[in-house]
Amino acid sequence: MSQTSTIGKAINLGLRRALEDDPKVVLMGEDIGRLGGVFRVTDALQKDFGEDRVIDTPLAESGIVGTAVGLAMRGYRPVCEIQFDGFVYPAFDQIVCQVAKMHNRSLGTIPMPIVIRIPWGGGIGAVEHHSESPEAYFCHTAGLKVLAPSNPNDAYWMIQQAIASDDPIIFFEPKRRYHEKGEIDTDLGLAGAYPLHASRVARPGSDVTVVAYGPMVRTCLDAAVAAEADGRSLEVIDMRTLSPLDMGPVYESVRRTGRLVIAHEAPGNVGLGAEIATRVMQECFYSLEAPVLRVTGYDTPYPQSRLEEEFLPDLDRVLDAVDRTFAY
Amino acid sequence: MVNGERGPRATKSGGTTRTAAKKPAAPRKKATTDRSVANGTDPAFVQLLTPEGDRVEHPDYSVDFTDQEYRDLYRDLVIVRRLDTEGTTLQRQGQLGIWASLNGQEAAQIGSGRALAQQDMVFPTYREHGVLWCRDIDPIMPFGLFRGVDLGGWDSRKYKFNMYTIVIGAQTLHATGYAMGVKLDGKMGTDDGEAVIAYFGDGAISQGDVNEAFVYAAAYDAPVVFFCQNNQYAISVPVHKQAKAPLFERASGFGFPGVRVDGNDVLATYAVTKDALDRARHGEGPGLIEAYTYRMAAHTTTDDPTRYRDRSEEDAWRLKDPLSRMKAFLEKQGLADEDYFAELTAEADRYALDLRERVLSMPEPDPSSIFDHVYPNGSPLIDEQRAEFLAYHASFEGSGH
Known about the structure:
Number of strands of chain B: 7
CATH topology of the largest domain in chain B: Rossmann fold
Structural class of chain B: alpha/beta
Helix content of chain B: 40-55%
Radius of gyration of chain A: 19 Å
CATH topology of the largest domain in chain A: Rossmann fold
Largest sheet of chain B: 5 strands, parallel
Oligomer: heterodimer
Strand order of the largest sheet of chain A: 3-2-4-5-7-6-12
CATH superfamily of the largest domain in chain A: Thiamin diphosphate (ThDP)-binding fold, Pyr/PP domains
Strand content of chain B: 5-15%
Low-confidence stretches of chain B: 1-38
Mean pLDDT of chain B: 91
Largest sheet of chain A: 7 strands, mixed
CATH architecture of the largest domain in chain A: 3-Layer(aba) Sandwich
Structural class of chain A: alpha/beta
CATH architecture of the largest domain in chain B: 3-Layer(aba) Sandwich
Number of helices of chain A: 12
Strand order of the largest sheet of chain B: 1-2-3-7-6
Order of helices and strands of chain A: EHEHEHEHHEHEHEEEEHEEHEHEHH
CATH superfamily of the largest domain in chain B: Thiamin diphosphate (ThDP)-binding fold, Pyr/PP domains
CATH class of the largest domain in chain B: Alpha Beta
Number of helices of chain B: 15
Number of strands of chain A: 14
Shape of chain B: globular
């Protein structure tokens, strides 16, 4: 069955289905119960599944993740919500030192089937600590997997696939796109849906490859439409999975186009773009017609909201980078 | 001073007060958890002014204000509420991105703020507009943060008032470290000694940082007062869901005294805060104050409290309003008349209008200021990006873009 949904509602529906399918799934986080979360992503779930399965936690992020570790040991599948990206850091120690390493330290005997959902990125006019893009920290940590859906159908299925996975997963939700609508196909099933740790061509093209993930996929798709009017064909690849990276579609694309632009909101320095560019250089060196270019946030603190449009990569900056790849 | 009627709750001790560190509170029955918010009764706390505006005595705490000082306290309450209302209005009109209202918590903030000595240092959350007012800081200062034209930065040391801290509870450790510095500098032990106050809420007290701050403050006898405004909600989650015993009682476990005060009573809040600050400045170590109050407004303007609490609960708390009880007191004592109140209302309106006009004319930030102040010693990476940024934007000049 197909239905129209926003990204936020798609995650809500996915969480609902996971709660229905597996009695060991529990949600935990600040204000996720009666309030339904500050973005309403868990709306009505506590009402329908009870306070024991949709848990309003104390205001303590290390506590959320640390107790999720214990619940996971006990056989539960905790889905933690961190209220905003900038509030994950009190839990960073638990995530990096415990969640990521438990399976390895226990000689493979104790999995950590924990999903940590993080409304993520900028563009909502918020005050500081509410607009950050910390994905590189987590991608750098062995033992974690990191996902970033960009559209409602992926959001609906990826959250369910993540919960079903025994790997600990950081699940970044593109908060400024929560209200964007699209079709979701609820009949695909976990196995029938697009594979979890796989990237995908979001829009085919022939002149230049543009790689993005999360909220930047929409920006790059818009850029592709604008470029088409100028007679230039952009192939947009939605990475979907940030760790591990699925580079196959990127290599295949770059071998055809010879040009690559990578876009992300996070600062460029030691970001995902650097990793992707290096791998492309190694695998596609003789196909490249131009240096790989990045369009990213700046290496500054995330600015006040009146300047965030200057900070965030937009359609113009993507097209500017595309132009520059043709200057070689 | 009139002999006020002593409310039934006011006859009880306000808590462990000064002897808590030596003599921990007796074990308590679970039923005494702070559910009073739900059933409409008050817990035991220090109170000097009843909701009806009657003065009551307390064995450990008292105030001795002149008539003018009483009026000044009321003036503070009225003006900070009016300015706060203007903040909410500006947000509703699209002039602020968000506003965190202090409505209902004016007495907790004015009482504690006016108890500060000139040399004391304040570490606020993002809601302490009333304390800021007491420091004689221009009330427009935090509006840059909420309007989004800046990141809410100022020289904390100049104002003896730290920047607002949004990450919940983080500032309690900063306050403790600052207080450790006061001690290292030998700036305590006399009437001129420095004390530090850290504001936080009932939600924050669950954070690891706050508990670590308690540990450090106790371990180093730091001259810091932990001022917890228990406004009953951490956004949507009521305090009794997070805490199974009164918050002030935690202090005794860490080894310093805790006290609960009627946070809607500006006189009692002043008295307990002054006492705790003076003990800290004289080298007697940290203290915890739980100001029992209620957030009448939403958590912030993005919040919708109708989803998690009943109007009847808000109505019950409205009867304990910090302003109306002080007004009733002034009236009963004959300290102010209708002309005074009318002029005060007009004065508060003038402040609000002036604030509004200045907020609306706050300059837009220069885009390239994104690259300012990232490092004290600069960075070639930042310099390079600033140059690229300027060149990119210059490329649009005159293109009609």
